[in-house]
Amino acid sequence: MLVNIENLRIGFPTRTGGLSEAVKGVSLHLGQEKLGIVGESGSGKSLTARALLKLLPPQAQVTADAISFDGIDILAASERGMRQIRGKRAGFILQDPKYSLNPVKTIGSQVAESWRFHKGGSRHEAREAAIDLLDKVQIRNPREVSKSYPHEVSGGMGQRVMIAMMLAPDPELLIADEPTSALDATVQAEIMRLIDELVSERGMGLILISHDLPLVSHFCDRVAVMYAGHIVEELQASELAHAKHPYTRGLLNCMPSLIHPRDELPVLKRDPEWLKS
Amino acid sequence: MFARLSNWLLDEAPSSRRQANWANRYRIWLALKHNPLGMMGLVIVLLFVFMAVAAPLLATHNPAAQNLDLRLAPPSAEYWLGTDELGRDIYSRIIYGSRVTLGMVVSVVIIVAPIGLAIGAIAGFFGGIVDKALMRITDVFLAFPRLILALAFVAALTPGIESAILAIALTAWPPYARLARADTLTVRNSDFIAAYRLTGGSNWRIVFRHIAPLCMPNMIVRVTLDMSSIIITAASLGFLGMGAQPPSPEWGAMIATAKRFIFDQWWVAAAPGAAIFIVSLAFNFLGDALHDVLDPKGD
Amino acid sequence: MIDIDVENLRIAFSGREAVKAVSFHVPAGGSFGIVGESGSGKSTVLRALAGLNQHWEGRISFGGKPVGAKRDRAFFRQAQMVFQDPYGSLHPRQTVDRILSELPLVHGMGRIDDRIARALDDVALPQSVRFRFPHQLSGGQRQRVAIARALIAEPQVLLLDEPTSALDVSVQAEILNLLVALRREHNLTYIMVSHDLAVVAHMCAEVGVMQNGEMVEQVSTEKLRRGAVSHPHTRELRALSVELEEPEELPL
């Protein structure tokens, strides 16, 4: 088992001295597979993934029966121990590459730096490795791209660069938090296909966090649907059409369809009962 | 009664414009209350304001009454902070001096903040040639050291409090204009300003009704942080004899005359010095706290 | 009801042509969708129509009357716009009441209280939100306020710039339903810009596809659904949309 999360709770202190829980008892298990976590804004999907890498803001109060990564107890791990996992054994891809890349360094030097940090070796080796990595994420002219600065490349290219940096240490797990929601549909498809191929090729685990249920079900093996801090339903992606939970069904239903027009879109009716599970 | 007021203020769904506005102010106050340094600053500032207002009640002597037999007396039961070179009670002069000093500071702020805000917001919003012209003028004023420029102005006018106020105001507005311009630039292309363009209202209406209020938090903060430097500029002008004229008890002027005895009769200079220090510090604390409260980036 | 006619619209930013000779016509009471990827020029077209961008060439007419670069005040009673990001399109320090009352104040419209109450009703918001600040509202509520702000002008044309792309899908459904209902009740003419083909197809009868500043194809929604499209870019966008909707239909 690569990732094991049992009964995770994340709370934030409120102004009045109470605690508002954003994640309320989530359990997740992941092997070498592709898991999608889907939910609307505020459902706690990103917090859950961040808790796994201890990337939550300091005021967050985390409790869990267990959080482990490849057998390592994350709850008990020190900051130094986490650095062995973060970026090295588990890569994290964020929504907008613009904010994750250093604007005053060339792309090549940033990828090379990341490679050298994990693997050591000479500057020259790192530079060659960086070009090789850029090639692996299907950038057509890696040598030229490596000399350009982040603002000179498109959003899709930036995301490829981020992925290349994450691949440098050969991680076992890739966490992608809305990796394509800032990108155009055509680019989104390319990036998702790239992530898909890399994950399958290298036998990595993937946690894909997104608000986009069709996208997630398309690229993942398994889908966990989160609502208000709970996982309300977990199912095989292929079984999505037969989802049982009214929330999942509602989410699927309320999207406009190109092929099957409807006069009015069914509106999701939120049932307080859903929170009791 | 208080609980009802508090409920009214914290109502999630206010039912009138007035209630919504007061609720907003109350929330700012609640946030400020949780900042100990800010509260300390506020209390000190209020104390000094009280001192200025109630000066005749607080003073033990006439601030101008001379007693040459008791020149440079050390602090005693009769003269709490001692006397100066003309035998005047330093404590009473500090009390009355708060009127002069705080009055100067407030007048400067009242002149400076609106001018800086207007120039900055207009330059930022209209851009182009208007921006270039206004900002170059601002640069000219910024290029001179503040005190030197103020000195030149006062020298050109007649030395006195009014001239000092004008001189400080003339030299204090450029940073405000720069600040307001920067704030304006960050919002001028936002969608909510675009939405106001689509009402058909004039540009002036957009600048003064919708953009200027957004520059206010930073302006208020800058004002409180600037208070201390205004006091110090005023004190420096007083020190150089260009500000308040004797026998008016201005703090800076008091230090200026006391400098001759600073080694033998240190209390003469120490009292007004401490007063300036405490007020400056209080304004700084308050400004810092207001910055956190009015500009909650971490929320 | 008024129609909108755009002929040979060209917009350039510092020498670079962002919109190249775009022409289309929207019948009175009709709805026209513009789809395209980022940088295709779709929002630029909409902003020029709204009068927010004054550097354009060509011909734009509303109800048969050509409009100039600078619009007179009356124009804004005729056409209003709803922006993409409900978090950025409401003044952060003004109450809903203040936001909604600005246009009536500028135009000297009377009975402002009644108008605000009616606008809130129109977008199905409770009167209790009237004196709240935007940060006290959810994304969907904010977008409803933005729509109410447009409606308070009693316009005949509504220009919609990705009105739901910043919202969750369940909220998107509510806003789309609201927009459909409003068009019927108020006899509005819509032009909607979106990157989402399914959303545009749901809302509009006719779709224009933009790529690199050109409108490469105009097609009826009905044909688009059937796949009777001619331009490769339209086909690509359609395929991507269908692929996610029905994975069986078009395998990767």
Structure, explained:
- The complex is a heterotrimer of chains A (277), B (299) and C (252).
- Chain A is of the alpha/beta class and 277 residues long.
- Chain A contains ten helices and eleven strands.
- In chain A, a hairpin with a 2-residue loop joins strand 10 and strand 11.
- In chain A, helix 4 (107-119) crosses helix 5 (123-136).
- Chain B contains twelve helices and no strands.
- Chain C is built from nine helices and ten strands.
- The mean pLDDT of chain C is 91.
- Classes of the chains: A alpha/beta (277), B mainly alpha (299), C alpha/beta (252).
- Chains A and C meet through helix 8 and helix 9 of A and helix 6, helix 7, helix 8 and helix 9 of C.
What's the number of helices of chain B?
A: 12
Note the run of SSEs of chain B as H and E: HHHHHHHHHHHH
How would you sum up the major sheet of chain B? none
The total strand number of chain B stands at 0
Please tell me the overall pLDDT of chain B: 86
Instruction: Please report which band the strand proportion of chain B falls in: under 5%, 5-15%, 15-25%, 25-35%, 35-45% or over 45%.
Output: under 5%
| Intertermini distance of chain B | 31 Å
Secondary structure: helix percent of chain C: 25-40%
> How much of the sequence of chain C is in beta strands?
25-35%
Low-confidence stretches of chain C: none
pLDDT averaged residue by residue of chain C: 91
Structural class of chain C: alpha/beta
What is the string of SSEs of chain C from the N terminus onward?
EEEHEEHEHHHEHEHEEHH
Q: How would you describe this structure in keywords?
A:
heterotrimer, A: alpha/beta, five-stranded antiparallel sheet, 10 helices, B: 299 residues, mainly alpha, flat
Summed up:
The complex is a heterotrimer of chains A (277), B (299) and C (252). In chain A, 35% of the residues lie in helices and 23% in strands. Chain A is of the alpha/beta class and 277 residues long.
Secondary structure blueprint with pairings:
The complex is a heterotrimer of chains A (277), B (299) and C (252).
Chain A: E1 3-13, E2 19-30, E3 34-38, H1 45-52, E4 61-63, E5 66-69, E6 72-73, H2 79-85, E7 90-93, H3 97-100, H4 107-119, H5 123-136, H6 142-146, H7 155-167, E8 173-177, H8 185-202, E9 205-210, H9 213-219, E10 222-227, E11 230-236, H10 246-253
Parallel strand pairs in A: 3-9, 3-10, 7-8, 8-9
Antiparallel strand pairs in A: 1-2, 1-4, 1-5, 5-6, 10-11
Helix pairs in contact in A: 4-5, 4-7, 5-7, 7-8
Chain B: H1 2-10, H2 17-33, H3 36-53, H4 55-58, H5 90-126, H6 128-143, H7 146-156, H8 161-188, H9 191-197, H10 203-239, H11 251-258, H12 267-294
Helix pairs in contact in B: 3-5, 3-12, 5-6, 5-8, 5-10, 6-8, 7-8, 8-10, 10-11, 10-12, 11-12
Chain C: E1 4-13, E2 16-26, E3 31-36, H1 42-50, E4 56-62, E5 65-66, H2 75-78, E6 79-82, H3 96-106, H4 112-122, H5 139-151, E7 157-161, H6 169-186, E8 189-194, H7 197-203, E9 206-211, E10 214-220, H8 221-226, H9 232-245
Parallel strand pairs in C: 3-8, 3-9, 6-7, 7-8
Antiparallel strand pairs in C: 1-2, 1-4, 4-5, 9-10
